[in-house]
Batch of 2 targets.
Target 1
Amino acid sequence: MDMGALVDRAADEPTIILHGAALLKDLVSVDDWLPPEYALPDPQRYCQYLLHCDSRERFSIVSFVWAPGQATPIHNHRTWGLIGMLRGSEACEKWIRSPDGALVPDGPAFRLEPGNVDSVSPRTGDIHRVRNALADRPSVSIHVYGANIGRVMRSTYALDGTRQAFVSGYSNAAIPNVWRAEEP
Ligand code: FE
């Protein structure tokens, strides 16, 4: 996946999202490359395994693994993000903030199937909630973000718009991680 070359030559986010989505679509259209340890579900919580972080933190690549019934809270990203479905299926809901701050749905809920790619960004819509759409097996998606996403200070939201700060970290935090010391 040539994300490094793409961010080298593309200064603007729309170009990165457009061409990055095509690269990610190629990656998730074939499900024969993800090592099993990065697709392991945890019955307690959904997992986010860091697969790669650009040494200049211009992007990171993460595998998300949902056991049946698992979902994210409503949350933002504060950078562009691409979500490519590798295995199983995810149900996605997007939200925008109304003038009084409360969250309102931004379009109907939709599903991602293997090979599908979705995007998020503060520019186009950054607040969503994702859950495993399958009741009987794990689902796995590959995410690419415009930062070292595990250390970005972000927000989770209640439907009334109340925010709570969070930093996601990574499920495989035991890997050598030169950024970890900077996490709050
Ligand atoms: Fe997200």
Target 2
Amino acid sequence: MRILILGGDGYLGWPTALHFSVRGHEVAVVDNMLLRQMHTERGTESLTPIQSLQERVATWRQRSELDIHTFIGDLTDGEFTDHVVREFAPEAIVHYGEQPSAPYSMIDRQHAVFSQTNNVTGTLNVLFAMRDHAADCHLVKLGTMGEYGTPNIDIEEGYIEIEHRGRKDTLPFPKMPGSFYHLSKVHDSHNIHFACRTWGLRATDLNQGIVYGIETDETAGDEELITRFDYDEAFGTVLNRFCVQAVIGHPLTVYGEGGQQRGFINIRDTLQCVDLAVSNPADGGNFRVFNQFTEVFSVLELAETVRAAGAQRGIDVAVEHLPDPRVEAEHHYYNPRADRLRELGLVPRLLSDELMQSMLGIIERYQDRVIERAILPTTSWRPAEGTSGV
Ligand code: USQ
């Protein structure tokens, strides 16, 4: 197939490009290096020493004799997006090309406005480009489990059957996201759903949980192909952060009581899920939603897991409860469904001791690169003191 990866320079986008390339697909990646620029803005960088996109593509060509096409540009530029879709004529688009951080979107007004305009405009441009130049193409869009928030009922996959005053309908599952970033994904979902209903496009929203891990089959053991690995406050996610903190002897930064529960998924399973979605496309006019995670943990459970894994390597890991910088439930009911990807054949790779040891081992190799100042949270969800907010 001809597969276009939006955000192909990122943590998941790059390994996804290699995954499809080695399986014989024609792959093109699009990126504007936004994540690299946001890291520069914050004075942080990937733990792993990643090469430029062009260098990595050249390395891949050497190693595999396979080509990956590159388009450097910004999806919020509609003419650029039209050009890419017209020129490459994809049969599937895998869309990771967004600002991915909740804390970054909560820094201040500018960062909130940027997160939503960047994400919503980019996705709208992709939808129009598909309508006008690739109407049969299947959009596989990375959404997030955070779109649902933590309601006091089971979370279904995208839709819920509701009976109201004696009448029934199947409607989008209610959304209660916890940041302007997560809200941008909700707005995307509504726009994609509308485009499917109105123009007959086909799309799958992958509501993914929190990803952890570093290596995939294609990048394992090859430093020049390794993907980025973030551990800083803005772009690092909780388990990746805890692993880095353990290795450098920093107390694990549990926000609040640590009873926050989330869905988690290993990076290799992300690739498996995206492959399953691409290989089993939605029908024309259909907007499918799959919940994409393999296990649920609380933040405190993760901290205990990392502490135990560290102990096996002789590291004495301390756990520290910081005041929660976010406004979120620190204890709550959480029972999201995730059946549809398993029905398509997903075989989960669960968080094991072996996996934890391998992650810690890789992090140890790069521990001299850790910028410790980037670890503690500085962004608060609450208005600054002296303002009139609650
Ligand atoms: N947390 C800590 N300590 C930390 C970092 C986080 O206790 O040092 C807590 C947070 O308060 C939160 C939970 O861990 O309750 C998850 O935080 P996170 O930063 O790992 O994840 P989140 O902000 O939800 O966002 C990440 C990705 C985002 C993706 C989302 C999936 O950055 O792109 O959409 O995970 S999900 O969480 O399912 O919405």
